[in-house]
User: Which sequence fits this backbone?
């Protein structure tokens, strides 16, 4: 197993170079961070670029991290939660971010979701740099583009399953009908129950329904099976994989469980605040085949 | 959906929100209640004055000729002048009630308001009787009515039952300052009913000023012009502010207003404190939810709005309900009590613009406060808010490092830390106790102070058991005989007017003959002897005139044209009568004749002397005491409001606090239980902290209560020189009462320690 990973890692080296090459388009992007037409141009350019350079992947780049740092100052001591992270996530991919506790994977997820701001570097989403966003723009970004599934579900306890999903209508116009969204996760019959009346797996499925009801470009999952038993966890995992495969959504999942690497299109390993490796998986396993 | 969330959150934290609701309701209820009452009373009386044309200026003198009236009418700004003869007398029957008798001319100024019978006509014979006096004595239109002025008896028939806007409040000359309208009546007759109509001498002029010229400055100018135009020394020109009826009611209304504001501030401050702590707790406990909402893409503004609407909704409901209930209940209640003291038609509450503004401001402040308290949770990015809050920075205080700390037992250490680390919560607890103790002290202190006042007036300053009031018939010899017979002391009590610079005040002068029934006390309430070489003035009067001991004051006896210019030889304090006191020798030195108006004695007085024409009435000290206390009813109403407020305040705040600290301590208590502490031990630990805070709160509350009482006593009125007295009983009651409220509320909560499920309580947080 260990050997395999190492080999794969070496294989992925060229991809990292591509990332570097992409930086060439930087000036264009930075200047027109807000102009969407230009951003689109840049996107196309970039896509062309990527296609020309690599040739094997047709999909478009959704997110790109460039030398992203997140640091916390505790008195005189400066602590890097993330240091010089470079990575690319393509549209429609299922990405698993792996790493032990404290490695920086949650920081990575928070930055992806616009829930925190980077200390330095660039985070390009559809070609726009998130690091230049104000609080309000980040809020809009989260509302429009990101769906989040939390480890502890984070449902509003005083709202029913239906209401938790319907809450999304308050912030976005073209949402999926809550009943439909709950039906998709198999909870149509339980939709008038409060979170406290549901099992963990059910709550997590409500949480997924809530996240996907927004039709987000990016679905972020923070240890979505962390509080669930294996059986229920598998169901949740299957659901997420379907979102990626059938609905062509970009799903990014953070976990410390290395078995999940098998179901991902791309596996990003994080250690000590840095990206350790980025590996593509040409034939990901089905979620139902994974065991842990 | 967020609105549904709000309703369910409100339901979940109902005790907290109900207490906020109650506090804002009570605050607005008292404020609007008293304001609507005082504004309504003010509006009613203003309308009354306007409709019946209350005189703007009164001129009193020995007699006025028609030429003088014409002269006065020519003064610029004067619209109309009317003559009147104003006397006092006694009724035949009706317990020899004291009467104010007015012989009128045209009655265009200060017109009578008719309840029953015929309206007043200038040439019509008969008497028009004041309504309250008529009602309580069963006098009806058409009844014969007889009364005596000096020795002249007048027999007449009741033509009408009326009220006069000049007399919304009056007391008999012998009475204290509190009215008894059954024993003191008001009569109006036309000059035609005067025994000798051809030779009637009018002693009063009523002056009506043009409406456009009725400002204070104009009135002052007109007063000076009037004084100049008459060019005699025996007249007194007074305006409305110097009119007893007008000024008394005006002061009463203003006092209620001030009280209303004071209460509202206390209650609303507590309500706001409640909102701060409750909203801070609600937002803190929903930290993860806030983080989630933010992560989902809700904007800061939306989330802020959501949480601010809690505070807004609750305070709006509370304030509006309070305003409404206050308006509906308080004015009828208090104005109902007014009815016995003030004779004003159509007294009813009135909502003013101030009430609306105050309600809006209270809601606004409550909303602002909830905005400020939830802002804390909203400032960080969602990634931070999603995580549990960073533990408080715990620093050891100097005390915790000292050697003494180590000698304390665990519960003391735990409680000290808990208090120091939850300063806001502890402060609120202390404030609740302070408010409770303060209002109790102040409320019962009012009773004490009035009681003290009565004991002082009729126990220290006037030590006679009986006061024989003499009529104008009594000459010196009669009084002297009476005095010899009962081993009494003669005194003369007269109305005087003081002038110092531009200030003019009415007061009374007491002239005392040899005897031992009248005593005076100095500034510090120590008994002193009356100065035998000059006049002594009361502290309150001296303050009003801006004078000190050694200064000169110009004064004259009302109805006498001789002005005196005297040096104030002494300052003394008197709670109820403001003016001057002097010995008979000093009085006679000023070339006045000493004509006693009362004889004081400790001997039992034969009842039948009342039948003498010279004797008006005999006042027993106990009757005087009872009358004085009874008529302080308004004060009693205030006291009830305060005591009820105190208990409510204590319970609501302490209950709120109890919920708050109990919820916050649930995990700690569960941990202690897991470690093996018995429930009873934990309860005693919790109660210990509560007792500390209560003791501190009571200590501060006692002082605050004294201060509040002091303010009330010193602002109560122009004629009352009250000082705060707080009896031991009151202290005891306040301390024990507050302590009981606090400890029992806490006991109720600490009882829940048993119900805490260790496993459940410790799970919860991730």
Assistant:
């Amino acid at each position: 197993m260990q050997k395999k990973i190492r080999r794969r890692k070496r294989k992925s080296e060229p991809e990292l170079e591509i990332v570097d090459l992409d930086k060439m388009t930087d000036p264009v992007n930075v200047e027109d961070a807000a102009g969407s037409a230009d951003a689109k141009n840049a996107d196309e350019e970039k896509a062309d670029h990527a296609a020309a350079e690599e040739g094997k992947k047709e999909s478009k780049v959704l997110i790109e991290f460039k030398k992203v740092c997140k640091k916390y100052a505790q008195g005189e001591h400066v602590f890097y939660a993330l240091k010089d992270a470079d990575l690319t996530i393509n549209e429609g991919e299922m990405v698993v971010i792996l790493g032990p506790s404290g490695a920086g994977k949650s920081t990575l997820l928070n930055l992806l979701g616009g829930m925190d701001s980077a200390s330095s570097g660039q985070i390009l989403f559809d070609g726009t740099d998130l690091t230049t966003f104000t609080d309000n723009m980040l809020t809009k970004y989260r509302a429009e583009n990101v769906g989040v599934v939390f480890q502890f579900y984070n449902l509003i306890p005083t709202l029913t399953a239906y209401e938790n999903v319907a809450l999304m209508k308050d912030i976005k116009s073209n949402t999926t009908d809550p009943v439909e969204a709950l039906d998709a996760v198999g909870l149509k019959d339980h939709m008038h129950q409060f979170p406290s009346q549901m099992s963990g797996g059910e709550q997590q499925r409500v949480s997924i329904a809530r996240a996907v009801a927004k039709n987000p470009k990016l679905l972020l999952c923070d240890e979505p099976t962390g509080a669930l038993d294996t059986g229920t966890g598998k169901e949740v995992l299957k659901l997420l994989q379907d979102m990626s495969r059938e609905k062509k959504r970009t799903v990014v999942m953070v976990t410390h469980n290395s078995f999940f690497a098998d179901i991902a299109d791309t596996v990003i390993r994080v250690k000590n605040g840095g990206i350790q490796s980025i590996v593509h998986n040409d034939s990901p396993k089905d979620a139902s085949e994974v065991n842990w | 959906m967020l609105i549904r969330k709000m309703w369910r959150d409100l339901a979940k934290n109902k005790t907290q929100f109900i207490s906020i609701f109650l506090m804002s309701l009570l605050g607005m209820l008292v404020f609007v209640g008293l304001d609507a009452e005082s504004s309504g009373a003010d509006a009613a009386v203003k309308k009354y004055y306007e409709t019946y044309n209350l005189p703007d200026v009164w001129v009193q003198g020995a007699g006025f000729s028609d030429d003088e009236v014409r002269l006065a009418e020519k003064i610029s700004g004067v619209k109309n002048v009317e003559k009147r003869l104003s006397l006092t007398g006694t009724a035949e029957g009706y317990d020899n009630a004291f009467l104010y008798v007015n012989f009128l001319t045209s009655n265009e100024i200060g017109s009578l308001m008719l309840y029953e019978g015929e309206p007043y006509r200038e040439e019509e014979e008969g008497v028009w009787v004041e309504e309250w006096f008529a009602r309580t004595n069963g006098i009806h239109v058409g009844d014969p009515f007889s009364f005596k002025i000096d020795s002249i008896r007048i027999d007449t028939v009741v033509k009408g039952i009326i009220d006069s806007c000049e007399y919304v409040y009056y007391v008999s000359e012998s009475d204290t300052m509190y009215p008894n309208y059954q024993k003191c009546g008001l009569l109006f007759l036309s000059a035609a009913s005067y025994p000798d109509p051809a030779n009637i001498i009018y002693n009063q002029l009523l002056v009506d000023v043009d409406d456009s010229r009725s400002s204070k400055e104009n009135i002052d100018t007109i007063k000076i012009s009037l004084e100049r135009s008459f060019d005699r020394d025996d007249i007194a020109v007074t305006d409305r502010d110097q009119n007893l009826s007008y000024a008394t009611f005006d002061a009463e209304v203003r006092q209620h207003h001030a009280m209303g504001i004071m209460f509202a501030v206390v209650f609303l401050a507590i309500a706001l404190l409640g909102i701060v702590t409750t909203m801070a707790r609600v937002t803190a406990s929903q930290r993860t939810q806030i983080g989630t909402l933010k992560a989902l893409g809700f904007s800061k503004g939306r989330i802020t709005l959501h949480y601010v609407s809690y505070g807004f909704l609750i305070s709006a409901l509370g304030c509006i309900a309070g305003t409404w209930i206050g308006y509906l209940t308080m004015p009828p209640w208090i104005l109902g009590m007014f009815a016995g003291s003030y004779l004003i038609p159509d007294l009813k509450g009135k909502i003013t613009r101030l009430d609306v503004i105050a309600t809006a401001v209270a809601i606004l402040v409550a909303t602002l406060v909830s905005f400020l308290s939830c802002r804390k949770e909203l400032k960080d990015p969602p990634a931070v808010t999603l995580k549990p809050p960073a533990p408080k920075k715990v620093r050891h205080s100097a005390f915790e490092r000292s050697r003494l700390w180590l000698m304390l037992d665990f519960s003391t250490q735990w409680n000290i830390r808990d208090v120091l680390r939850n300063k806001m919560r502890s402060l609120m607890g202390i404030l609740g106790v302070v408010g409770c103790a303060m209002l109790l002290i102040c409320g019962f202190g009012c009773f004490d102070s009035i009681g003290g006042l009565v004991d002082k007036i009729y126990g220290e300053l006037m030590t006679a058991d009986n006061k024989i009031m003499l009529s104008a018939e009594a000459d010196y010899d009669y009084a002297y005989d009476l005095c010899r017979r009962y081993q009494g002391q003669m005194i003369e009590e007269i109305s005087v007017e003081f002038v110092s610079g531009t200030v003019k005040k009415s007061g009374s002068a007491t002239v005392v003959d040899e005897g031992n029934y009248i005593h005076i006390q100095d500034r510090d309430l120590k008994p002193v002897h009356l100065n035998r070489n000059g006049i002594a003035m009361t502290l309150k009067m001296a303050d009003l005139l801006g004078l000190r001991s050694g200064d000169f004051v110009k004064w004259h006896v009302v109805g006498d044209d001789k002005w005196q210019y005297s040096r104030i030889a002494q300052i003394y304090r008197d709670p109820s009568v403001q003016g001057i006191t002097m010995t008979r020798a000093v009085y006679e030195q000023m070339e006045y004749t000493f004509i006693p108006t009362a004889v004081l004695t400790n001997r039992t007085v034969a009842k039948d002397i009342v039948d003498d024409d010279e004797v008006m009435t005999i006042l027993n000290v106990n009757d005087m005491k009872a009358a004085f206390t009874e008529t302080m009813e308004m004060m009693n109403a205030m006291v009830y409001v305060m005591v009820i407020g105190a208990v409510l305040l204590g319970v609501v705040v302490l209950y709120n606090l109890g919920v708050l600290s109990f919820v916050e301590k649930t995990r700690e208590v569960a941990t202690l239980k897991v470690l093996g502490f018995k429930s009873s031990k934990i309860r005693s630990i919790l109660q210990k902290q509560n007792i500390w805070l209560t003791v501190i709160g009571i200590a501060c509350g006692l002082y605050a209560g004294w201060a509040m009482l002091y303010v009330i006593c010193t602002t109560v009125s122009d004629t009352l020189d009250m000082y705060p007295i707080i009896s031991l009983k009151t202290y005891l009651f306040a301390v024990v009462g507050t302590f009981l409220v606090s400890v029992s509320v806490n006991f109720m909560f600490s009882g829940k320690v048993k119900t805490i499920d260790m496993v459940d309580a410790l799970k919860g947080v991730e």
The mean pLDDT of chain B is 83. Chain B touches chain A through 26 residues (CB under 8 Å). The longest helix of chain B spans residues 633-675.
